[in-house]
Amino acid sequence: MRLKLLGALGMAVFLAACSDDTNKGATTGTGAAAQSTGVTPGSEADLVANVGDRVFFELNKNNLSSEAQATLDRQAAWLAKYPQVTVQLAGNCDDRGTEEYNIALGERRANAARDYLVAKGVAASRITTISYGKDRPTATGDNEEAWAQNRNSITSVR
Amino acid sequence: MRPSDLPLISDVEASLLATHFGRRALLGAGAVAAGVLAMPLSALAQAAPGAPGDAEITVDQARTAPIPIVIPVLGGDAGQLVSSVISGDLGNCGLFAPINGALPVGVPDFGTYKSLGARALVSGTATTGAGGLRVEFRLWDVLTGQQIQGTAYTAGAGDARKIAHIIADVIYERLLGEKGYFNSRIAYIARSGPRTHQTTRLAIMDQDGANSHYLSGGQWLTLTPRFSPVSDQIAFMSYANNRPRVYVLNLATGRQQLLGDFDGISFAPRFAPDGHTVIMSVTRGGGSDIYSVDLASRGKRQLTSSGAIDTSPCYSPDGSQIVFNSDRGGTPQLYIMSAGGGGAKRISYGNGIYGSPVWSPRGDLIAFTRIANGSFSLGVMVPDGTGERILTQGFTVDTATFCPNGRVLAFCRQTAAGAGGAGFSSSIGTIDITGFHERSIPAAGMASDPAWSPLNG
């Protein structure tokens, strides 16, 4: 969790530092979005900085924790606000499973997040899913903290 | 008299060539396969004329003690290369102990080799000329002084390694009584770049790591190549155009085709023993189903619909059954069902979770990955689930593949990464099904997902 927040903060700082004319003129949304003024509303950066782009899973599981549900609630609200946005949910796994099983497990995780968003009113046609199994880890180390980071479903703007 | 001066005549050893190249390929006194012509060489004068007619060495004890075999540097400009490849094949498989020696002229001095402890001896020449490469090879039984095999091969000038692998297979078969596997290749995934977004390329090499080259460009994530057991085709998974699907690549034509039209992700391909169909997994909802796809008609047939993850399917060598990985019982385990689907029966009951099953071409064993307490093991079990043996362990050992005769497994071994990703490595190892002779295949850079080819034509 700490890593994720640092990543989000880093992104916001980065964007603020290189903010160009497009971002300068952009109006920010209300509430949480106000904390990152250099971000285009409805953009990938907005999603990452102000909503939270990913949810995490337990080992070999696809259950959505209350924290994951809260993140997806924010994503559903954000998607309702920007109805033109379509997203991809990419499921990922730690490297403690086999190559092939993890491809299916990653898809199962993306699917769990998709089903939740659809239940919250997001049109299924706006969501695609993909799984990278254990081949696109976010954290490069091999320890419990890194594995927890890598068991996720990451939402990105298409 | 030097061996190269001998006339080429038909001899009883031609029967071995017939076996080696397939009986239909034997043409008169010679055999042709993929540009290689093999002709029997007559036996030199026998040092022990009274020896038994069957010169094959009986080496039951070779299972535990490697056979000492003298492999001198052969004569001719390609002799050094041919000898080193033969020696590498036989030494690396663990069943032979190559001894360097002087090249014998004519009939070898068997007394000297006997005193070295040698059981067999190789002699011959390898010469490149205007007509290409000519390799004359003889195999001798040191104890009886008999020539076991004499063959002259002619091939293209660049085929020295190939001929050497063929000779190593002949030696393996004559001395062990079963077909070798050295004239074969391994398809694999070459990996480079940072671990968070590694570049993956489909690649192929000889089984000893030589002649490695890429078959794809690395733009898209590419995984799990699988060789056809009967043709020069590889099924694999590619994320081309951000749509992960199973493709088939024809190595002869370079043509690559999408296999099957599915809504979900298709992955985990595996050819049927006859090469006519490919089975694979296709995601649906929170699980994946197993399908077979006919290569000619592209007709597809759904074999499982459990709602759970059913994946990593692999046919038995007789094509009647399929072993696969499923978490339908709660955790990933191994199951066997009929080739038409149905009748699934769990076979794995050890501690931990199981995956990546692969059926031996001999039919008698299923190799698998087992994960317990955060550590991976590679093992084999009898198809009814009994006799489980762990062959090797590590941080990650996965994607086992059998060599053509079923005696050796190649697999991917990965090491754990420390902070920042340093320390991560990915390589291809091999291990005998007895659990001995583990070694690493040299490859430039990181490699994973090995897939052993059938014997080359």
Automatic annotation (TrEMBL), chain A:
Membrane topology: Lipid-anchor
Transferase in keyword set: no
Primary localisation category: membrane
Region of interest (Disordered), residue spans: 135-158
Key word Signal present: yes
Keywords: Cell cycle, Cell division, Cell outer membrane, Lipoprotein, Membrane, Palmitate, Signal
Any one GO biological process: cell division
SUPFAM superfamilies to which the protein is assigned, alphabetical: OmpA-like
Cross-referenced PANTHER family: LIPOPROTEIN YIAD-RELATED (PTHR30329:SF21), STATOR ELEMENT OF FLAGELLAR MOTOR COMPLEX (PTHR30329)
Subunit structure: The Tol-Pal system is composed of five core proteins: the inner membrane proteins TolA, TolQ and TolR, the periplasmic protein TolB and the outer membrane protein Pal. They form a network linking the inner and outer membranes and the peptidoglycan layer.
Job of this protein: Part of the Tol-Pal system, which plays a role in outer membrane invagination during cell division and is important for maintaining outer membrane integrity.
Family: Belongs to the Pal lipoprotein family.
Annotated protein name in UniProt: Peptidoglycan-associated lipoprotein
Gene name in the database record: pal
Automatic annotation (TrEMBL), chain B:
Localisation per UniProt entry: Periplasm
Keyword Cell membrane: no
Alphabetical list of Pfam families matching this protein: PD40, TolB_N
Presence of the UniProt keyword rRNA-binding in the record: no
PROSITE patterns, A to Z: TAT
One GO cellular component term: periplasmic space
One Gene Ontology term from the biological process aspect of the record: cell division
Principal subcellular localisation of the protein: periplasm
Domain TolB N-terminal per the UniProt entry, residue ranges: 56-148
Keywords: Cell cycle, Cell division, Periplasm, Signal
HAMAP family: TolB
Subunit structure: The Tol-Pal system is composed of five core proteins: the inner membrane proteins TolA, TolQ and TolR, the periplasmic protein TolB and the outer membrane protein Pal. They form a network linking the inner and outer membranes and the peptidoglycan layer.
Function: Part of the Tol-Pal system, which plays a role in outer membrane invagination during cell division and is important for maintaining outer membrane integrity.
Family per similarity comment: Belongs to the TolB family.
Name of protein: Tol-Pal system protein TolB
Source organism of this protein record: Gluconacetobacter tumulicola
